[in-house]
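Handout, section B. The chain below has 403 residues.
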Amino acid sequence: MRSRFCLFLGLLLSAGTLLFALPARAAVSDIDARIAEEEQRRKRLEGRISDYRTRIRELTTKVDTLLGQIDRLQQNEAVAGQELSLLELQRRKVQEDIAFLNAEMARERIKLNELVDRLQNRVVDMYKYGETEELNLLFGSASTFEALESLHLLRMLSRHDELLLMQLQDRMREMELSRRTMDDHRARLVKQGEALKAQRIRYRGSIQQTNNFIGNIRKQKALAEKAAREMEAAQKAVGHTILTLMRRKKEREAQAPQVKGRRGGGDYLAGRGRGSMFDWPVRGPITSAFGRRVHPIFKTKSFHSGIDISAPPGTAVAAAASGEVLFDGWLRGYGQVVILDHGRNYSTVYAHLSSTAVREGQVVQAGRTIGRVGKTGTTTGYHLHFEVRVGSEVKNPLDYLKR
């Protein structure tokens, strides 16, 4: 009878223990579901942030391209202005040459007309008097030598006038030809000037149109940056929610002996203090420090949540301290990522890996290879992006790495 009572009491205690354990397991399962849900939401937000960042980068590139076009248009417009000024000076010079040539032609024409009149009068006199003029000169002279000299001078004067007439006529023809050439040159200069004026108008119109286009693009970029900031804020909120759920999960697991020892239950930083809490995951120069910086791709001012350590591709990445793998997978922007939980609310992030060598839930020792250096995600080259987090807050890794 006593043995039956003991058996009944044992069964009753076992049932009670089972009943108390079931709610704990159910609560942990619910938190797991919420964590998974929030993780999916965080990934969707990261995807949208990446899309906005890509849009910002495209708009920045487009603005830079358009600014280059404006610079070239302004240079072309300036060159056209200089050419137009030069053409105007050339036109004025040709105009002055034409005016001078016209004045010279007018003077030569007066000389020509006077010479023609003189020759015509001489021809008339010679027709009237014929050879009597020469006889008068001969008999009216004081001597024969004087008479002959007068006749010779008269004939020389006639030949000189004829030669001068021919020279004046040739000169008039040359000046007329020069004037026509200058008129044609002036017409070409005027036509070129009109073409350059039209070209400058087109350049100025293109510059104005491009400036308007840049203004619109900058507005779009500002909207994209605002949306990205909003997404980042949402991402931080989701990260905080995940941390809160994980803390609750640890509390529930601690209350349930059946699940004790699972993720989140250990302190892997025993004996380590600040300044020597973490080992260097890789050795190499720091190419980007923690804090505010100009993003190397987006060219926008942003906060860098870790440090970038340059290393050759394929370099082994070691766990900075012992811990449990919280995450092993792909995150937009970060590429291949491993996140380790070290207890005491400390975690480390290893990003842009080419490959990983761990799985979620696995406990790893300090110095163990967890992945290889790569350039996955949004990056400018081969390096390791390393973060130290305390809860949801990022910390400067240099304050925690061994010196």
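Note. The longest helix spans residues 2-129. Compare this with the example in section A.
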